[in-house]
Write a structure and sequence with these properties.
The chain is of the alpha+beta class and 237 residues long. The protein folds into two domains: 191 residues, Immunoglobulin-like (Sandwich); 35 residues. Helices cover 15% and strands 30% of the residues. It has three helices and twelve strands, in the order E-E-H-E-E-E-E-H-E-E-E-E-E-E-H. The strands form three sheets. Strands 3, 6, 7, 9, 10 and 11 form a six-stranded antiparallel sheet that branches. A hairpin with a 2-residue loop joins strand 9 and strand 10. The longest helix has 23 residues. It is elongated, with a radius of gyration of 22 Å.
């Protein structure tokens, strides 16, 4: 999905199928707390991973990658899933999202087709094999899920948000996550942070900013009504 950061509605699809968010004049970093990664950082290229964009034309939003690093725990792929409530400018940490399914996919793994019965999912996966194979684990209260890696790895990793067997949000897929020797430790895997970006959610820090602006405006109007001879003056004047 390619984003345009201006639109005349909260969220919509353009005729070419691209997603459009209306961020009320704010930047992506202001709204979501960070920019999404559109390509693999150079320092992660030795792992052989690549990003596969979602193909489903969703009006609900998306799940994107906002960070990827060598895993600090030997022989484990680690995934964090966080929400839109992230405002590093105010010193806040990402808000974790628990109970989100995460697919650690590999073609010889267990079949999990029973989880989803949705034509959109087949379209979204693109060139991925039709079945969900591998390990599917829920995130914990810290928004984390992880697997122990044997061999060289090669997992295709992504969150899977489904409700009643239907895909809610398409996610970027981080493909071919390998385990390498001698990066941080003898068996270094991958750590990925995904961010859920829901079209129906305005981040908490944005709501707080908007509410403060409304309150400040009301206070100014009250002040002007109470002091008609001081129009144009600030409240604290």
């Amino acid at each position: 999905m390619q984003y345009s950061w201006e639109s005349d509605s909260k969220y919509k699809l353009t005729p070419d199928g691209s997603s459009v968010f209306d961020l009320s004049g704010r930047s992506e970093e202001e709204w979501f707390g960070c920019k999404s990664l559109t390509k693999v950082p150079d320092y992660m290229k030795p792992f052989g991973i690549r990003f596969d964009r979602g193909y489903t034309k969703s009006t609900n939003g998306e799940i994107c990658v906002i960070g990827i690093w060598p895993s600090p725990i030997e022989q484990r792929h680690i995934v964090e899933v966080v929400t839109e409530n992230y405002n590093p400018r105010a010193g806040s940490s990402p808000e974790p999202l628990g109970d989100m399914l995460v697919v650690f996919g590999y073609h010889t793994g267990k079949n999990h087709d029973h989880l989803i019965n949705d034509l959109n999912y087949s379209a979204w996966k693109g060139n991925q094999p039709g079945a969900i194979r591998g390990e599917v684990l829920p995130t914990n209260l810290a928004g984390e899920a992880s697997v122990t890696v044997g061999g060289d790895g090669g997992h295709d990793i992504h969150p899977l948000w489904i409700v009643e067997n239907t895909l809610v949000l398409p996610s970027i897929i981080v493909r071919n996550c390998m385990m390498l020797e001698g990066i941080l430790n003898n068996h270094t895997c991958v750590k990925i942070r995904f961010q859920v970006r829901r079209a129906w959610i305005t981040p908490r820090h944005i709501r707080e900013q908007d509410n403060k602006a409304i309150l400040d405006d009301l206070q100014l109007k009250v002040h002007r009504l109470s002091h008609p001879g001081l129009h144009g003056k600030k409240i604290n004047d």
